[in-house]
C-alpha cells in the first residue's frame, strides 16, 4: 500500500491503461454497447444466454451439475483413485506428490477463480464498491476470460506432468490400438482415438501408429526416451525449473517430461511473451494458422532444368510435405496469403476455416482456394503483420480452447480417472476368471510387483491369450466413451461455422447506427 498523497503517475504504465480499458470495454460490449471508429456508438441487444462467469462456472462446476465435466469434482475422484492404486501396489507414497499438486491447484481455483474473497467476510481490506460482493467477477468478461485461460493452461500442464508419472495413459492407448488392429474392437473408441490423434508422438515412436509387433512398439517408445543423454537433459531442465521458476508455469515445464511434451498454443505464446516471431519453427503445428503464415515467409526456388517453382527445404516445409501437402498446395497457400495481405478487409475467407480437426486444412488447400494463381515474383514478401496477423492467430487460440484442436477443452483429471477405472474393471474381470496373465502379473512374478499394470499390458501385447484380449475389449466398450464426454463445454465448434456466424452478424450490423443521438 502507498502512503496517502503519494504521486503514483510514473507507476501507471501503458499496459496498465490497456488492461483497464479492456476491462471496461468487455463490460460494455457484453451489454450491447460498442464503439466503431467510422460509425460512432452502436447499441444492440446483449448476447442471449451470456454472463461473464458462464464459462468459468462450466470449467469448475462448483455445484457438481455436470458429472464428468467439472474440474473440482474430478480432482476429488482422481485423488481417491490414486490412493486405491497406492494400496494395490502396497506403496502409500506412490502418488503423494501428484495428489498434493492436484489439491493445491484445486484450492487455488476454489478461492481465487470466479469468486472474490470479499464474499467470505475479509475484514482487513477496504469494502467493495460493487453492490455485489463478487462484483469484480460478475461484471468483467475480460477478467473472467483471462482467469479462465490461465486456469485451462495450468490444468493442462499439471496433467501432462501427472500422465508422465503414471503408466496408464500410454498403456491404454497401446492396448486400444492393438485390440483395434486385431479385430477385437471393430470401431475405434472415440476418447482413445482422439487422444491418439492429438498426441501421436507422445504415445508412439516417431508418432507412427503400429500395425504389428505391438509389444515391441511399446518398448520402442520407452527406449526412445531412455538414453542417458535424454535422461540427463530432462533432469537438468527440471533442476533449472526448480531453481529459477517464478510461477507454477515454470515448475510444470513440459520440456522436463519424458513422454508428454506437447505444448498448447497458449503455452507457446506465453513462453515468448506473446511475440509470435519468437516461436521456433520446430514448435509450430503445420496445420495452425501461425504455421501457414510462417510457410508464407519461406524462400521460393526455381528449378534450373524444369523452371518449376518450389519452396526451399526447411524443417517446417518438410513437415508440411510429410503431412500430405504437395508443392501445388504450398504455392496455393502463398497465393492466398498474398491476397489476404493485399486486401484491406482483415476478415478471413470462410474456405480457409472450414476444414476438419484431422489436419486436412493443408492438403485440401489447393481444392479450397479455387485454383489460385501463383504470383510470378518468387521474392514476393508475404509476411502477414499487424491486425491481419492477429486475425489469423486468434483462430489458433480458438481451436486450442474450444475448436478443432481442443487440447485445452479436455478435462484431463476425469480422463485420468477413467483410465484408472478401466484398468480396475479389467483387473476385476480377469481376477474372477483366474486368467493366467493376470495371475502372473499380479500374484506370482515378482518382477512386476511394483508395476502390475505394465506387466499385464506387456504380456497382453506380446501374447495370444484370447480370453484376456476378449475381456479387455469388452471392458474398453463398457461403456464406449467419446471425447465429448469429458470436455468442459457443452460442445466444440468448427472454425468455419463460427466465422460464417460472425460474418453474417457483421453484415447485419452494417445498417443504421444503434443510437442516433450518441
From TrEMBL:
Organism in which the protein naturally occurs: Aspergillus tanneri
Span list, region Disordered: 351-379
Source species, domain of life: Eukaryota
Name under which the protein is recorded: Uncharacterized protein
Amino acid at each position: 500500500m502507498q502512503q496517502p498523497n503519494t504521486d503514483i503517475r510514473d507507476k501507471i504504465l501503458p499496459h496498465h491503461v490497456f488492461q483497464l480499458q479492456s476491462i471496461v470495454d468487455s463490460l460494455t460490449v457484453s451489454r450491447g454497447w460498442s464503439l466503431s471508429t467510422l460509425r460512432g456508438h452502436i447499441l444492440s441487444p446483449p448476447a442471449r444466454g451470456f454472463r461473464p462467469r458462464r464459462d468459468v462456472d462450466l470449467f469448475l462446476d462448483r455445484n457438481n451439475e455436470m458429472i464428468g465435466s467439472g474440474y473440482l469434482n474430478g480432482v476429488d475422484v482422481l485423488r481417491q483413485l490414486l490412493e486405491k492404486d497406492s494400496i494395490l501396489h502396497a506403496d502409500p507414497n506412490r502418488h503423494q506428490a501428484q495428489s498434493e499438486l492436484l489439491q493445491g491447484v484445486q484450492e487455488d481455483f476454489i478461492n481465487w477463480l470466479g469468486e472474490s474473497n470479499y464474499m467470505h467476510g475479509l475484514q482487513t481490506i477496504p469494502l467493495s464498491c460493487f453492490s455485489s460482493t463478487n462484483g469484480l467477477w460478475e461484471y468483467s468478461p475480460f477478467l473472467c476470460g483471462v482467469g479462465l485461460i490461465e486456469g485451462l493452461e495450468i490444468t493442462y500442464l499439471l496433467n501432462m506432468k501427472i500422465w508422465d508419472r503414471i503408466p496408464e495413459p500410454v498403456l491404454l492407448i497401446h492396448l486400444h490400438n492393438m485390440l483395434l488392429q486385431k479385430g477385437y474392437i471393430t470401431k475405434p473408441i472415440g476418447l482413445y482415438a482422439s487422444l491418439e490423434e492429438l498426441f501421436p508422438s507422445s504415445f508412439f515412436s516417431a508418432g507412427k501408429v503400429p500395425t504389428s509387433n505391438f509389444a515391441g512398439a511399446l518398448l520402442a517408445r520407452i527406449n526412445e526416451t531412455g538414453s542417458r543423454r535424454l535422461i540427463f537433459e530432462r533432469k537438468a531442465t527440471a533442476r533449472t525449473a526448480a531453481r529459477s521458476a517464478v510461477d507454477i508455469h515454470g515448475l510444470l515445464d513440459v520440456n522436463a517430461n519424458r513422454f508428454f511434451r506437447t505444448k498448447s498454443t497458449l503455452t507457446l505464446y506465453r513462453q515468448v511473451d506473446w511475440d509470435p516471431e519468437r516461436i521456433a519453427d520446430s514448435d509450430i503445428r503445420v496445420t495452425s494458422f501461425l504455421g501457414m503464415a510462417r510457410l508464407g515467409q519461406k524462400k521460393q526456388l526455381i528449378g534450373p532444368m524444369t523452371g518449376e517453382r518450389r519452396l526451399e527445404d526447411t524443417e517446417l516445409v518438410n513437415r508440411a510435405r510429410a503431412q500430405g501437402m504437395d508443392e501445388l498446395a504450398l504455392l496455393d497457400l502463398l497465393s492466398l496469403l498474398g491476397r489476404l495481405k493485399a486486401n484491406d478487409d482483415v476478415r478471413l475467407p470462410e474456405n480457409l476455416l472450414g476444414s476438419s480437426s484431422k489436419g486436412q486444412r493443408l492438403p485440401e488447400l489447393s481444392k479450397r482456394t479455387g485454383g489460385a494463381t501463383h504470383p510470378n515474383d518468387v521474392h514476393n514478401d508475404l509476411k502477414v503483420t499487424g491486425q491481419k496477423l492477429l486475425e489469423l492467430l486468434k483462430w489458433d487460440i480458438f481451436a486450442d480452447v474450444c475448436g478443432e484442436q481442443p487440447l485445452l477443452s479436455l478435462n484431463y483429471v476425469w480422463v485420468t480417472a477413467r483410465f484408472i477405472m478401466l484398468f480396475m474393471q479389467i483387473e476385476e474381470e480377469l481376477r474372477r476368471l483366474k486368467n493366467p496373465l493376470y495371475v502372473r502379473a499380479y500374484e506370482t512374478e515378482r518382477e512386476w510387483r511394483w508395476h502390475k499394470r505394465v506387466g499385464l499390458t506387456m504380456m497382453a501385447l506380446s501374447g495370444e491369450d484370447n480370453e484376456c484380449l476378449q475381456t479387455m475389449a469388452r471392458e474398453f466398450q463398457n461403456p464406449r466413451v467419446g471425447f465429448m464426454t469429458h470436455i468442459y463445454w457443452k460442445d466444440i465448434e468448427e472454425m468455419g461455422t463460427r466465422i460464417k456466424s460472425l460474418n453474417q452478424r457483421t453484415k447485419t450490423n452494417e445498417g443504421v447506427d444503434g443510437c442516433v443521438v450518441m
